[in-house]
Amino acid sequence: MPVVLAAVGFAVAGAVSGSTVAYGLAAAALVLGAISWPIVGRRFGSWGYAEREDDLLVRRGVMFARLSVVPYGRMQFIDVTAGPLERSFGLATVRLHTAAAATDARIPGLEREEAARLRDSLAELGEAQAAGL
Amino acid sequence: MSTGAPEGWHRLHPLSPVVRGGRLTYGIFILLFLVALGGDKLSNAVPQLAVTIVLVLGGLVSWLVTRWRIEDDDLRIETGLLRRQSLRFPLGQVQAIDVVRPGLGRVFRVAELRLRMAGASGGTARLAYVAEHEVEPLRDQLLALARGARHHETAQQPAAELERPVAEEHLLTTVRTGQLAVSIVLENWWLVLILVGIVAGFAVSPHTAARALRGVGFVWAISMATFIWRRFNQQYRLTVAEGPDGLHLRGGLVALTAEVIRPGRVQAVRLVEPFLWRPLGWCRVEVDVAGRQHRKGEGEAQRGQLRTLVPVASRPLAVELIDRLVPDRPRELLPPPRRVFWKSPLRYRTLSWGRTETWVVTTSGRLRRVVSWVPLEKVQSLRHVQGPLQRRLRLASVHVDTAGRGVHATLRDRDAAEAGRALAELTDLARAARRRPALS
Questions:
Q1: A133/B387 touch (CB, cutoff 8 Å), yes or no
Q2: What is the pLDDT, as a whole number, of residue B298?
Q3: Mode of pairing for the β-strands spanning A48-51 and A77-81
Q4: ipTM over 0.85
Q5: Domain boundary among B121, B145, B166
Q6: What are A31-53's pLDDT values in tens digits?
Q7: pLDDT less than 70: residues of chain B
Q8: What is B267-321 written as a DSSP string?
């Protein structure tokens, strides 16, 4: 997405100033975008989550493959955020927080209804299994 | 606990603002001293006196508007003149109560009570300052209430335990001053080397050295010196004793602190062997206790999250302490596969991990060696991570996340299959540990 924006931006700049450098940069950005497309696709494909009986699994990353196991009982709060871009596509990000700062369980790009459902079900499970510190 | 306040409200010690002023107080004293020296013309000293009066009035007002009392299971503190604040601290969530006596506090015989609370929203309730002779009874009272509140909530143990006399403790160890000094120098040898270099530079050729050091270098040197001083000050004659409610820590050179570490609140235990300590067979024991990172202004010394249990000790002594903290210690450590040498040559020799039903242990470190024990009951989440190089070598790491910030227990660079198994195993064990009713 930033690549596309950059390409458009440079093209506009080129049109305004008539500078060939700006057009060149726009072309470079487009080429970069074309190259990175499959990588983005793979990264997209690497995201995944599974609700198990006692914990939530979140998977992500191609280069650095990460798999987090977050027990429901350990969740302190869940937040659902949707940035402007996400909102325009009807998406949202669900993030789980535990008492540990290192926990990194984030599920981006969920459909809004799915995000809401996940949030509610996680909150319910968390409540049922809550364990202290 | 001065009287005159309605229904159980107490005020802090009248000298509190003076002690809280810290450096400012010293400054005012010096200012007044200079004014006194300056001779009889009082009109010359009007600005200085005005500043002093304003500050004294400010302190007086802050003391007047601050009061506290115990309401059922809560400690309530009210403070603030313009922006009135009423703080409620549920005693059931108290993790520990520390007693802190700064240098000025010792002069005026007052001390601060610091109640460390649980939970991310917690924080620290501070009663600064209370007269010295009232501190211990108040602390015992609060601790008893805290225990009571907790039992009240969980209703697991009979209340009779509350009447148990607090006190009798069994002394375990006191840090020797010489050993502490040597250990600090050895751990920060490069710092000390630089400091010595700077001093030597000044001795040999003050001009060149001064030019080289002007500004940043000088500030840096000062900050390093204070860092070392602070550590020494904090850990001077640190005493560890075993009491009925946990381990009691006491110590300090100018500022005295006393705290209790309850076994049920320990999130992780760590044994650190800095590089230059190893030939001497010394090590340090640290524990990670739940409770939020102290905010700025709570005193530099308290900011580090890990509590040093013993700043320096011989190995057998450290092992004895760890036996108390980690009763069911994993004895069998699994070394990493050979090929890890190619990925982390410096760490290869120190990497290992082990587990029992209740604890997981990991060791790591390049030059210094760090052993971390984490109770499975306290594990927050588990992460399995595989980087590109690790994939090439069929390795993976499993991170064990705890509520503290200081301890990074990581099963680093394990065989990929083993890491997968470990993740599943630890997940199950942690679940079982959580379900088990707390031992204490």
A1: no
A2: 39
A3: unpaired
A4: no
A5: B166
A6: 888 888 888 888 788 888 888 88
A7: 1-7, 38-44, 118-123, 149-169, 209, 212-217, 290-306, 404-406, 437-440
A8: EEEEEEE-GGGGGGTEEEEEEEESSPPPPTTS-GGGTSSSEEEEEEEEHHHHHHH
Minimal CA separation from B284 to chain A, in Å = 24
- The answer to the question of residue B245 being in a domain is no
Distance CA B435, CA B427 (A): 12
Number of domains in chain A: 2
pLDDT value for A2: 64
pLDDT of residue B400: 92
**Interface test with chain A among B94, B121, B383, by most A beta carbons within 10 Å:** B383
Q: What is the CATH number of the domain that holds B71?
A: 2.30.29.30
Closest residue to B381, CB basis, from A65, A74, A132: A74
**Residue B166 pLDDT:** 47
Q: Are A3 and A32 in contact, with CB atoms under 8 Å apart?
A: yes
What integer pLDDT is reported at residue B1 of this predicted model? Answer: 43
Identify whether residues B275 and B147 lie together within a single domain.
no
Please, which residues 73-132 of chain A have a Cβ atom closer than 8 Å to chain B?
A: 73-74, 76, 98-105, 131-132
Contacts of A66 in chain B (CB under 8 A): 383-386
Residues 6+ apart with CB under 8 A from B185: B192
A122 shares its domain with A63: yes
Residues A55 and A108 in one domain: yes
Residue of B nearest to A70 (CA): B381
Considering Cα of B154, then B160, then B165, then B169, what sign does the dihedral take? Answer: negative
Measured between beta carbons, the chain A residues lying within 8 angstroms of B385 are 64-67
User: Is A16 in the same domain as A69?
Assistant: no
Give the residue numbers spanning the domain of A94. 47-129
**pTM for this structure?**
0.72
Are A55 and B431 within 8 A, CB to CB? yes
